[in-house]
What we know:
The protein is mainly α. It is 79% helix and 3% strand. The radius of gyration is 17 Å and the shape is globular.
Amino acid sequence: MKLTTKRSDNFNLSSTRIVSLLALLSALSIVGRIYFSVIPNVQPSTFILIAASMVFGIRFGLLLALLSTIGSNIILGLGWWTVFQLIGWSAVAGLSGLIGRRYKLVNHYLLTLFSGAMGYLYGIIQSIPMFFMLGPKGFLGYYMAGLLFDTYHAAGNMAFYFLLAPVVFKMFERYLDGCRQLPAEICKNK
């Protein structure tokens, strides 16, 4: 199964249409993360970030990562880990945006595996501070102890992507098609 993604890195973020989409996806990500917090590391936030970054671009994905991280951590708890969550989700947004930029036809099954790999990438970035606190041996033990939770994150990402990506990509494409019918200054950078 192949999905077509129409990239649009040329959004003008001063447009209320684009800002409202960013706010809507941020709210969905925040609520999804809070709602699924009872299941360790299974959260739709990473899937939403991957899909949005692939379709709307890296810049949109980075803003979504920032808003989702801070918004959900206001409820779940802010701390030094918030910085590494932001770095982790920014890396996911960047890689997803690069994949969206390079390919017009994206294999659904391959991207399901990619979304799982993003769960592991996020987990290893979250563990980086422990390398400096515990040293290499302590870091290895710390990371191995948390590997099961990274696997939950990867499996959750894969399930969300496999089940929801076809519908979400169609919705995003319809949004882009609607945006293209608006005056050019709304959808393009100056």
